[in-house]
Write a sequence for this structure.
């Protein structure tokens, strides 16, 4: 997908450490902006409260590789020992349709999207503190083991360092309503600037 194709809609990429509140924020953005949220494909096991086709499309490594070979992904990456990918066609269609399109992807995915879609707006969500992040990860209760949880917490500081360097905006998710409001303002400004 080249740059010319992002002229109709707005491509918004949301990243942040695991448990910071990305899914919660994205759900609110979809409701309030009538935005299109891309449902990613993943090979990780489905979590206790997750639904196939709503949270992710949960598929096997083999099916994932077939989609990679078919060039079906706008971007894809290995994250926490599993594969994740953004389906190219639904995103392309929604952008051409003039919609605000939201991708919730990791830093690797965001940088890869920015290379092909230079108009993409990169927004990184920060926790108010490390303790809040650890607490929210527990509150989310997806049934991860301790190793996986530790790995997710450890990678947060690396992701935050990359975010300072590469992202267009950093937003602290202390108060949820305030964070959503800030992101809406950023998107509005960007949409206005294109018209
Ligand atoms: P992520 O998608 O980044 O992994 P989630 O959206 O699943 O994170 O949120 C993790 C947990 O944190 C959930 O229990 C959610 O309700 C909670 N949460 C999200 N935003 C806030 C906030 N501003 N204050 C307190 N808890 C929050
Ligand atoms: P989780 O397993 O907690 O849902 O997601 C783990 C990480 O994978 C998060 O940083 C999330 O943003 C990222 N992620 C989710 N979907 C995609 C995707 O399609 N592509 C990439 N690159 N990362 C993704």
């Amino acid at each position: 997908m080249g740059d010319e194709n992002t002229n109709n809609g707005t491509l918004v990429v949301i990243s942040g450490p695991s448990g910071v509140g990305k899914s919660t924020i994205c759900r609110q953005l979809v409701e309030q902006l009538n935005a299109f949220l891309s449902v990613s494909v993943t090979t990780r096991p489905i979590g206790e409260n997750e639904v196939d086709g709503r949270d992710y499309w949960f598929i096997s490594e083999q099916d994932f590789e077939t989609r990679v070979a078919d060039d079906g992904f706008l971007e894809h990456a290995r994250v926490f020992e599993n594969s994740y990918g953004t389906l190219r066609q639904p995103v392309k269609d929604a952008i051409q349709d003039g919609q605000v399109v939201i991708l919730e992807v990791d830093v690797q995915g965001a940088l890869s999207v920015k290379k092909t879609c230079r108009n993409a707006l990169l927004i990184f969500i920060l926790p108010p503190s490390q303790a809040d992040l650890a607490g929210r990860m527990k509150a989310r209760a997806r049934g991860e083991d301790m190793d996986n949880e530790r790995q997710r917490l450890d990678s947060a500081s690396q992701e935050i360092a990359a975010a300072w360097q590469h992202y267009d905006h950093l937003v602290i998710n202390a108060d949820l309503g305030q964070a959503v409001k800030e992101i809406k303002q950023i998107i509005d400004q960007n949409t206005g600037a294109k018209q």
Summary: The CA atoms of residues 111 and 166 lie 8 Å apart.
